[in-house]
Amino acid sequence: MKRMRMLVFTVSAIVVMLCAGAMGQSVGDQSTYFVTYFSNNVSGAPDATLRFINDGESGYNLWAEIYVFDDSQELSECGQCGVSPDGLLSEDVKTELTNNPLTGRVPTRGVIKVISSYYDFGPTYPVPYPGLRGWATHIERATPTSGAYATTEAPVADSNLGSGELTLLENLCYYLGLLGSGQGTIACTAEDQDF
Fold first, then answer.
1. At residue 22, does pLDDT exceed 50?
2. Which pLDDT value is given to residue 100?
3. Spatial separation of the C-alpha atoms in residues 43 and 110, rounded to whole Å
4. What digits encode the pLDDT tens for the residues 177-188?
């Protein structure tokens, strides 16, 4: 009977230690899909910025697969920008993310979606892989009637990337590339050339 109690006590102690160890380990943020918005993308307003860093955990370059939608939910531009380990990517909304729209009409507001991708296959075939972290500045009117603007910055929102959304983004960007003949393509700034 004593042996049985000792065995139960020993097994229980091991289980408690393993559970405590597992809870104490840092797993990190495994997000691969992010969303944010832009607004007041108009002449006279300050510019917004989208920033991403590669947390370096993978030890490899990652790609920010960027999809820019106008406020009518239509894909306006897409492209990919590389981010080296511990690197910083800063993309200007006016001159890099919205200046080459498929339709020729620069959106004044809309949505930006980003997939953290492992391979350099481009935005028509992203391979989701965690490691990017992002922030965006937002341009807001100081008051509804004034011409003054305020700038805020916030982390981009972690989102759920389902297979339907992934396929939709791939297909929309693929067809945008076919239809646009260069229109609708995002040109990235090199990491060491940030403004």
1. no
2. 96
3. 16
4. 999 888 999 988
The pLDDT of residue 27: 55
| Alpha carbons 93 and 59: distance in angstroms, whole number | 28
- Residue 8 is predicted with a pLDDT of 38
Please, which residues have CB within 8 angstroms of residue 33's CB and are 6 or more apart in sequence? 113, 114, 115, 116, 128, 158, 159, 160, 161, 165
Q: Could you please report the per-residue DSSP string of the chain?
A: -HHHHHHHHHHHHHHHHHHHHHHHS-------EEEEEE---STTSPPPEEEEEE-SSSSS-EEEEEEEEETTS-EEEEEEEEE-TT-EEEEEIIIIISSS-TTS---SSEEEEEEEESSSS-TTS--B-S-EEEEEEEEEESSTTSS-EEEEEEEPEE----HHHHHHHHHHHHHHHHHHTTTTBPPPPPGGG--
Structure tokens at 164: 């339907």
What are the domain boundaries of the chain? 33-182
Count other C-beta atoms under 10 Å from residue 164's C-beta.
8
Least confident of 66-75, 87-96, 140-149: 140-149
pTM tops 0.90, yes or no: no
